[in-house]
Amino acid sequence: MSKNIIFCGVGGQGTVLASRLTAAAAMKEKKQVMTAETIGMAQRGGSVFSHMKIGEANSPLIGKGEADLIVGFEPGETVRQLPFLKKGGAVVTNIRPVQPVSAMIGLSAYDSDAMVSYLKSHVNRLILVDADQALFEIGNPKVLNMVLLGAALETGAVGVEPSDVEAAMRERLPEKLWEVNTRALHYMQNR
Fold first, then answer.
1. What are 122-179's pLDDT values in tens digits?
2. pTM given for the model
3. Which residues contact residue 164 at a Cβ distance below 8 angstroms, ignoring those fewer than 6 apart?
4. 31: helix, coil or strand?
5. Domains parsed from the chain with CATH numbers
6. Which residue, 58, 62, 87, 57, is CA-closest to 7?
7. Cα–Cα distance between 191 and 189 in angstroms, integer?
């Protein structure tokens, strides 16, 4: 059975690494994987997203209403990708906003509480992650991607084993980062 997953956030949050670790884990399980990333404007604060299909696919792009899972690193970006979620699909999202530059300089409004409320009213399978609290408890502000990836694995909508994500992480990150990233990956299991 194929899985369609969208990872979305802003530059600097680790969105691309999370999608690449997921793809590597799926390949370890001998599953076909197709991905497409939009990272051209991924400077800190710029929109970033990855489409991923695990299983048989002809194209990496996910159509509207076809995503089994959206993993949102920022609530506004999660809302932006919501049209891609299929009926009954799951959403895992960080509740901490990253205000766009236009909002910071007063050219537009950004209400993160309204974004979270919108998600609550439009998504039945919603997991809200207080990343600030998680990162504080873990003791490292740079493992947001692993916390959210761990929460996504808990939904069952990813279709890969946490042990394969850990193995992919160990192949791609320096050894000094393994322990904290492993704790972050399993943070939501311990809640």
1. 999 999 999 999 999 999 999 999 999 999 999 999 999 999 999 999 999 999 999 9
2. 0.92
3. 24, 25, 26, 28, 29
4. coil
5. 3-190 (3.40.920.10)
6. 62
7. 6
